[in-house]
Write a structure and sequence with these properties.
Nucleoside Triphosphate Pyrophosphohydrolase; about 230 residues; globular; alpha+beta; two-stranded antiparallel sheet; 10 strands
């Protein structure tokens, strides 16, 4: 199914590159350019060096592995949507040829935490909102479970952590996701993949999203633990 009634997107066009005139501390992402030095245990200090840190006003995010039981076993929901940064890799000098255009990327549902989303209760509430907005399912916060601790995405440059969660939607009706109405939501598509195929798809390059692989591996471990307890 599609998350939009519009025509599918075929390309992303850069209308203007205003990098040279934009402030580092405005926009969706904020770049902090710092001069730092190390304080050592013996009281000495390193020389001053530069550090760039990318963050957002809302630092962290939640990702949700939405799953259901079917005649084929457990399936997980994947959302295929536009990813401009991945698409614009084509403009870079890449170390190895990349045969994929990356206009869209398949991944589990995810969204940014808002300032009001505090504690695990806030994480679950944001997961519920994203499951509806991007997945089309109405679930209760109590149904959302944490999938281990949050993880750092790219600690060398990003301050962001992602909280992994999972929720079962077996038997629940799926509606057309409302999305947030932005151009980045155009042409989004939803599909189900058997859980047993997710990690192999990550290993052979059909799925390229790291949080999806990590969530699937943690969920598989969780399911294995449940089966051991039941045996």
């Amino acid at each position: 199914m599609s998350g939009s009634d519009g025509v599918g997107v075929s390309a992303i066009e850069i209308v203007e590159d205003f990098s040279a005139t934009a402030r580092c501390d405005e926009g969706f992402l904020r770049l902090r350019r710092l001069r730092c030095r190390n304080r050592r245990e013996d009281g000495s200090q390193s020389k001053v060096y530069r550090v760039d840190v990318v963050d957002r006003p809302c630092v962290d995010a939640v990702a949700v592995l939405i799953w259901r039981r079917s005649d084929e076993g457990i399936e997980i929901l994947l959302r295929e949507g536009l990813r401009p940064a991945a698409y614009l890799r084509r403009e870079q000098h890449l170390p190895l040829p990349d045969p994929t255009d990356h206009l869209t990327v398949r991944e589990i549902v995810a969204g940014l935490l808002e300032p009001s989303d505090r504690g695990e209760e806030g994480v679950r509430a944001r997961a519920v909102a994203e499951v509806w907005e991007e997945g089309g399912f109405r679930v209760e916060p109590e149904a959302v479970r944490m999938l281990g601790p949050a993880f750092l995405v790219a600690p060398g440059i990003l301050s962001e952590k992602i909280f992994l969660t999972e929720v079962e939607v077996t038997g629940l009706p799926q509606e057309v996701p409302p999305t947030d109405g932005s151009p980045l939501e155009e042409g989004a598509r939803l599909s189900w993949m058997p859980l047993a195929e997710v990690v192999p798809a990550c290993l052979d390059g059909r799925l390229l999203d790291a949080k999806t692989e990590l969530a699937a591996r943690r969920f598989l471990d969780q399911q294995a633990g449940v089966q051991e307890q039941g045996s």
